[in-house]
Amino acid sequence: MATLDHTEAGFEAMIVQHLTIVGGWEEGDPKAYDRTLGLLPADLVAFVRDTQGAAWDKLVKFAGGEQGAADALCKRVAEQLTKRGTISLIRGGVRERNIGFKLCYFRPNLVADRTGLTLYSANRLRVVRQLHHDAKRPQDSIDLVLFVNGIPTATAELKNKYSSTGWDVEEAIRQYREDRDPGNVLLGNRALVHFALDGELAYMTTRLAGEGTRFLPFNQGSGGPGAYGGKGNPIVGVDGHPTSYVWEQVWERDTWLELLDDFVFDEGGVPGRNVVFPRYHQWDVVRACSAHVRVHGAGHSYLIQHSAGSGKTKEIAWLAHDLSALHSDDGQLIFDKVIVITDRRVLDAQLQRQVRAFAQTQSAVVEIDEDSQQLLDALTGQAAKIVITTLQKFPYVLKKLVGEGAAQQLKDGRYAVIVDEAHSSQTGQAAVDLKAVVGAKSIEDLDLDPDEVDGVPQELLAQMAARGQQPNISYFAFTATPKGRTLELFGTRQPGHPDGEFAAFHTYSMRQAIEEGFILDVLRNYTTYSQLYKLEAQAEKELPKGKAQAKIAAFARFHPYAKDQKARVVLEHYRRVVRPHLGGEAKAMVVCASREEAVRWKQALERIVEQEEISDVRILVAFSGEVEITDPNAPDVGETYRESSMNASAGKSLPESRLPSEFDKPDYGILVVAEKYQTGFDQPKLVAMYVDKHLSGINAVQTLSRLNRVHPDKTDTFVLDFVNDADHVLGAFEQYYGQTEALPSDPNLLSDAAQTVLDRGVVDEEEIDAFLAVYSPDASHQLLSARSQRSYAAALELDDDDRLQFRGDLDRFVRFYKFLSQIAPYLAVEHEKLFQFARFLALRLQTHAEGGVSVADSIELTHYRLVEGETRDLGLGHGEVAPLASISGDGTGRGSGGEVPMGLLGELVQMFNERFGEKLSDADAVRPVQDLIDKAAEIGETEGLRAQAVGNSFEDFARGKEDVLIDATLQVKDVNDLILQKLLDDEHVRAQMTQLVMRSLYDRYTGEGLSG
User: Fold this and answer.
1) pLDDT digits (tens, 9 = 90+) for 416-460
2) Does 857 reside within a domain?
3) Is the pLDDT of residue 525 over 60?
4) CA–CA distance from 406 to each of 164, 403, 411, 445 (Å)?
5) Domains held by the chain: number
6) What is the spatial distance between Cα 579 and Cα 431, in angstroms, rounded to a whole number?
């Protein structure tokens, strides 16, 4: 390495020296640059003349000589660069006088293509120092410009923080923003990317826009390429620069041409104004995967743990195209098809657009948005190289293949399967069916003893063959939050780790994404609330302790009074703290525990909005399907609610598909959700989240991460959590802040789980063989039920708790087998047989729900208080993280066996009160509110309130009714003096209570109920 001096000129000279001696570039003369054309005309002409002699001779003839031809070509290229953009011309060439000219030759896939390699080597890559590019500002110069065949492709501003100026990369960024004219032909239209770098950090942008220019990090991460770390670059030895990868790797001749060929693309709009250049990790992950495949071929798995903010959709598109054209060193195409799996039943529109945008041949990409026949045609046809589909279509393709010659054709191919979001669905039956459709592993490959397979249906053995790793399928699985099973299924064993932990093949961590500013840390303003309750038992009865305690807790937490108090906190916080952000367009999400809770939350929020005449908050709700109210004590029992009708405006329902775009409008501020939009929901205006649901592990991370999307004006996020412990939430995030690891599973767990099922004495082993003799995916339920009837009847003879425990044993074995059968080196036929039987038997038993425990009609909430805790920055990045476990051998199903402990309801309520109600006082009483309503109703009968309610709006009915509230308060004996004084002294409290009481009376009189 050359001796370094500590000047910017020395830094620049060192880079150019490396490029010209090692990197395959030539140094150019800045005086050869034509400022008007934005080209090195001599290089452009020489390249065309040397590589396309016949076409050049035609142009010379038509243009009247060499100079005329040169002028015509350069003028035409300049015009087309301005009109179509640089990347379009570099890839597609240009026509002058109807003569076609290539402007660059890319490396051919086949090593034997000598002509292609000769043309490729003729490309002229030239680096020019100190290019005075602007005639209007002749003193300005760009430190480095990278030309390909005379066309500018990149510029770079270099700084050396150890020089006399002390300037670093920030000064280079400032220069681009403030001292460079974005309208200049070189900077505004020709160069595809602009680099700002010093010896330690690198940034880049594809569009200069003055002060509005956004530079993105182009750093490896402090842990190095594909490894856990934060922002920046790894520390290197005293003789090197942390940013040396830029000129030693990225700008290296072959790599630079590959980037132009395979990675840089124009997203549309004004040509050259929406260019995409990959961030370092995006380029590196594609390069790393392809390099491994090129050496090792098909049949391997690659887990890519890339955080939100990584640009995953673009990574998938780049990887799909790279793999579709990947050849081995001997010139063989490695994959016949690339299959991109998105787990959403409706294909991801953004993913489709991105993959197609990269395609240089549009017919090479097929989106399966119709039926399974379309998927089969794409897999068996020659045109489609990349197929985008959902996993759910493969079972139907498998059925179509029965008896068709195409079945073996598919198994003879090699496939790259890219999984958009790797999680538990990859251990499901649809994932096995994918392998059954295209997997090459045969029954013979199972290496089973003849005695094992005697009498076993061939279809069952084929299922076994489809479960494990297939020699002709490579998996590339993307996720930000891998579970233990995902790591073991797709991950890579860590060398040197004593327990053989699995980790991702490539990592872009949550930490790096946060530090680089691509996502926000959602735990920086985390407020927890505690809920204090006191209950009273209205009847005495003996109940199972565990179930009754859970029901008591749920009764208290989901009580309408408790919800009303939380809803008031949400509205007050949203209006005071959240709404002012983002110019008044900040939004919030309420996360609920169930679909019925989502209905109740929306009703509670809208009731308060109406009562307090709030005009600046509108609310939407999101849940799937229908919600029928079955609680006999609910005023709207029997009502059915749907998302679309609850979001109706002006009497017109809002289709589910339009909800995200509607919520994006300024009119709406709060979205109430239940198991919907907690993952895969990209809304940068989301600033706050109100959590009324237990969250743990990956679910906590995925749910709260809806807040992490960046917005130009978004600096803070807020979480108000009514349920969870903040430290538990922090622990969940710590697991995914860096590189997640998982311990390998105990191979004996499957045998142990199978033995537990058999030891119950319920499953008739002879009946398993009878069941499998008629088993097929299309077999009738009636036939399969008949062949499992003895075991089913034996299960029904168990008492409720033993049957629940047995069903848990079945579920556990089925769950273990689905996963372990995909990673085990050897499978036992008896386990496959038990799996098919146990899965069906467990489904049958689900129709016999165990007797429930009801406490709602026997207890009453008497006191409640919502207590705000401290707001904390939870401090990501400081906790110890243990490897995940894929599956656990602890326990044997859901039950624990033995006699179920019982307890008296009164004693259980007392235990609950001791835990949650010790700090409550008379001021927290709830029951007097209902007494007030009842007393107000008595008064109303004598004062004609019923007649006033009928035919009037609620607003007209409630106006001027505070005297009714005061009269009722004075007449209710259980209202303590503190509450009475509060009503008399506090106008706001009095108005709220009046609205609450009058709303109850109005609903009672008009029969509207809570749905009104």
Assistant:
1) 999 988 765 666 777 888 888 888 888 878 877 777 667 777 778
2) no
3) yes
4) 71, 9, 9, 21
5) 4
6) 44
pLDDT grade for 975, boundaries at 50, 70 and 90: low
> What are φ and ψ of residue 673, in 5° steps?
-130, 150
Regarding whether 611 and 727 lie in a shared domain, the answer is yes
- Percent above pLDDT 90 for the chain: 53
Q: Domain residues for 319?
A: 280-508
Distance of alpha carbon 79 from its chain centroid, rounded? 42
Residue 913 to residue 915: CA distance in whole angstroms: 5
**pLDDT of 474 strictly over 90:** yes
Same domain, 672 and 619: yes
In total, the chain counts a number of residues equal to: 1012
Write the DSSP string, 33-60: -BTTTTB-HHHHHHHHHHH-HHHHHHHH
Number of helices (H) and strands (E) in the chain: give both, helices first: 41, 33
Residue 756 lies in a domain: no
- Given its phi and psi angles, is residue 536 left (phi above 0), alpha (psi -120 to 50 degrees) or beta? beta
- Whether residue 808 lies inside any domain: the answer is no
Task: Answer for the pair 919, 534: CB distance below 8 angstroms, yes or no.
Answer: no
Q: pLDDT per residue over 292-321, tens digit each?
A: 999 999 999 999 999 999 999 999 999 999
CA gap 950, 209 in Å, rounded: 63
Q: What is the DSSP string of 692-744?
A: ES---HHHHHHHHGGGGB--TT----EEEESSS-HHHHHHHHHHHHS---EEP
Torsion 106-111-116-122 (CA) sign: positive
Place of tokens 């066996």: 897
Residues 269 and 289 in one domain: no
Q: Is the pLDDT of residue 974 over 60?
A: no
Distances (CA, A) of 371 to 320, 397, 436: 22, 9, 18
The Cα–Cα gap between 797 and 145 comes to: 82
Confidence label for 895 from pLDDT (cuts 50, 70 and 90) = very low
What the block records as the tokens of 114 is 């000598």
Same domain, 186 and 293: no
Tokens 């080209």: give the residue.
Answer: 39
Q: Are residues 631 and 656 in the same domain?
A: yes
Tokens representing residue 900 in the block: 């179920």
Stretch 855-876: mean pLDDT, rounded?
Answer: 81
Tell me the pTM. 0.86
The predicted model gives 904-933 an average pLDDT of 65
Q: How many CA atoms lie within 13 Å of 567's alpha carbon, on the beta-carbon side? A: 28
Residues 455 and 329 in one domain: yes
Is residue 893's pLDDT more than 80? no
Strand-pair category, 473-479 with 301-306: parallel
Q: Under 8 Å CB-to-CB from 748, ≥6 apart: which residues?
A: none
Give the integer Cα–Cα distance in Å for 333 and 110.
9
Kindly state whether residues 292 and 347 are assigned to the same domain: yes
Low-confidence winner among 148-162, 236-250, 423-437, 631-645 (lowest mean pLDDT) = 423-437
